[in-house]
Design goal:
Layout (H helix, E strand, L loop, with lengths): L4 E5 L4 H6 L3 E3 L3 E4 L8 E5 L5 E7 L5 E7 L7 H19 L4 E6 L8 E6 L2 E6 L2 H4 L2 H12 L3 E6 L12 E7 L3 H5 L2 E4 L2 E4 L15 H11 L6 E5 L5 H9 L4 E6 L2 H13 L6 E5 L2 H7 L6 E6 L11 H17 L1 E11 L6 H14 L4 E8 L17 E7 L1
Parallel strand pairs: 1-4, 9-10, 14-15, 14-17, 15-16, 17-18
Antiparallel strand pairs: 1-3, 2-6, 4-5, 5-6, 7-8, 8-9, 10-11, 12-13, 18-20, 19-20
Bound molecules: S-adenosyl-L-homocysteine (SAH).
């Protein structure tokens, strides 16, 4: 390890960095040794020359250093194997045998810039940093050794790669599954089967971060004799299928503007023998809610929109969008009904979300009881000293 070059920090945000936040911005970097190239692994030294860890260097990114280890160690196949093993042991403990989950959630698993999702025998990975990209071969090797999957798919088609100067790549690396099986790949989570599009689907195919919230919806369906459920932003049917599965008399309407997502949602409903009680509509949720007949009221309305803001500069617009959604949803909710609402943007905090719902309730003269606060599923861990790791928040409101 002695051949590592050094990056020297100044005192800017040193407290945050000392607490263990892995992102180090340009302003905190004093200088680097000569000869460092973008993507290199470096030794990070604090303002007094003290050792602070090992990380990846990318002078072309706003995050100039990403700390990967607090010890001086080689970032090699063994390093990744041990990280994957730790992450797997943790998931085994908390998910009690679930076979599809997020194995590595970037910073919250100590591997800034790496996402790994496991869907039974398939493993998908996504790399969002130049330093991590330089270790792709070791990552694939370590995945093979730890999980022995039938297929490893590189889903490096996320837009955030551009911030690190990385291209979009989709590639199948190792495969012992037939092309046809891969196209119709299906998994089972909590007794529901989902057909996924591993190559083209959003994220890596499924919103694994909502899986535990899907189960919470199941429990709420029990409160109604014949729950009429509206699932806005239904994607491939996560909340809809769980509602229909939970209650034999549930009637579910899912709305999504993606025809491909709705097509898969319909296949999923059929495969689970729930299609007679699930309808999926291709529409923009805003338009659909605006044109909905106010006499058709729902027992449960789910709002699970995409992130309306990826940065703090567009938060105000996003708040307006969220508020409009809530006003329209509340108008369609029965008294005695429940609104389940989520925001997956880190920049919309729990208190901002609660505040705009409060305003929407005032505008529609609804009285709401806050019954529950939700967060992302536990395979997307929230680390206290990394506030960005808490991004998905939600509430259950009972309308009086
Ligand atoms: N609720 C889903 C995940 C939703 S992801 C689950 O639990 O699995 C967000 C979805 O919103 C995507 O499927 C996307 O196609 C859809 N979407 C984005 N903007 C939309 C809009 N204005 N109207 C309808 N659907 C939209």
């Amino acid at each position: 390890m002695s051949d590592l070059k050094n990056a020297y920090l100044n005192r800017y945000e040193i407290r945050r960095i000392r607490q263990g936040h892995p992102w180090i911005y340009t302003k905190s970097l004093d200088r680097v040794d000569d000869g460092l190239t973008p993507g290199d692994t470096v030794r990070i030294l604090g303002p007094k020359g003290e050792f602070m860890g090992v990380g990846f260097y990318n002078p072309n990114s706003k995050i100039v250093l990403r700390k990967i280890s607090k010890d001086e160690q080689a970032i090699d196949t063994k390093f990744f194997r041990e990280k994957f093993k730790d992450a797997l042991d943790y998931r085994d403990q908390i998910l009690r045998g679930r076979s599809s989950f997020r194995l590595i959630n970037s910073e919250s698993d100590g591997l800034s810039g790496l996402i790994i999702d496991k869907y039974e025998d398939a493993v998908l990975f996504q790399i969002m940093s130049l330093g991590m990209e330089a270790h792709k071969a070791e990552i694939i090797q370590a995945l093979q050794e730890t999980l022995e999957p039938k297929v490893i798919i590189e889903r490096n088609d996320v837009s955030s790669r551009q911030y690190e100067g990385l291209d979009s790549i989709k590639k199948i690396h190792q495969n012992s599954i037939s092309g046809e099986e891969l196209q119709n790949y299906s998994i089972t989570i909590d007794n529901l089967s989902y057909q996924l599009d591993l190559i083209e689907g959003n994220k890596t195919g499924l919103y694994l971060d909502q899986v535990e919230n899907h189960l919470k919806l199941r429990a709420l369906c029990d409160y109604y004799e014949k729950p009429n459920v509206l699932d806005c932003f239904s994607y491939i049917g996560g909340f809809s299928l769980n509602a229909a599965y939970a209650h034999p008399h549930a009637q579910v309407t899912g709305i999504d503007q993606s025809k491909e997502a709705n097509a898969l949602a319909r296949v999923n409903a059929q495969n689970n023998q729930l299609d007679s009680r699930c309808t999926f509509i291709d529409a923009n949720v805003f338009d659909w809610l605006r044109n909905a007949d106010p006499a058709d009221k729902y027992d449960i309305v789910v709002l699970d929109p995409p992130s309306f803001t990826k940065n703090r500069y567009t938060v105000d617009n996003a708040i307006r969008g969220y508020k409009e959604l809530h006003v329209r949803a509340l108008k369609l909710l029965k008294n005695g009904g429940r609104l389940l609402t989520y925001s997956c943007s880190h920049h919309i905090s729990e208190s901002i979300l609660r505040g705009l719902i409060h305003e929407a309730a005032a505008d529609t003269q609804s009285t709401l009881r806050e019954e529950a606060v939700y967060q992302q599923s536990s395979d997307h861990p929230i680390v206290m000293h990394i506030p960005e790791s808490y991004y998905l928040k939600g509430f259950c409101y009972y309308k009086i």
